[in-house]
Design goal:
single chain, about 90 residues, mainly alpha, 1 helix, about 0% strand, Oleosin, transmembrane, membrane
Length: about 90
């Protein structure tokens, strides 16, 4: 059977929870405001630089895909050669 907690302990617990919740709510609001401001600043830059960024990202993606495919084929070749050797 659980014991009844003193009323002062319950009040302190509620005040602590309200303080922590309120501060987290304020911080989340500040983070949301900063995100909106940064998105407002970054959007025109992304539109201006998109003719450069899009081909660059496509090129980087193709390079990464090529290196991963090359590594995969190399591992497959080593596996087949070791299987043949045994």
């Amino acid at each position: 059977m659980q014991q009844q907690q003193p009323r002062s302990y319950q009040v302190v617990k509620a005040a602590t929870a309200a303080t922590a919740g309120g501060s987290m709510l304020v911080l989340s609001g500040l983070i949301l405001a900063a995100t909106v401001i940064m998105l407002t600043i970054a959007t025109p830059l992304l539109v201006i630089f998109s003719p450069v960024l899009v081909p660059a990202l496509i090129t980087v993606g193709l390079l990464i895909t090529g290196f991963l495919a090359s590594g995969g084929f190399g591992i497959a070749a080593i596996t087949v050669l070791s299987w043949i050797y045994r």
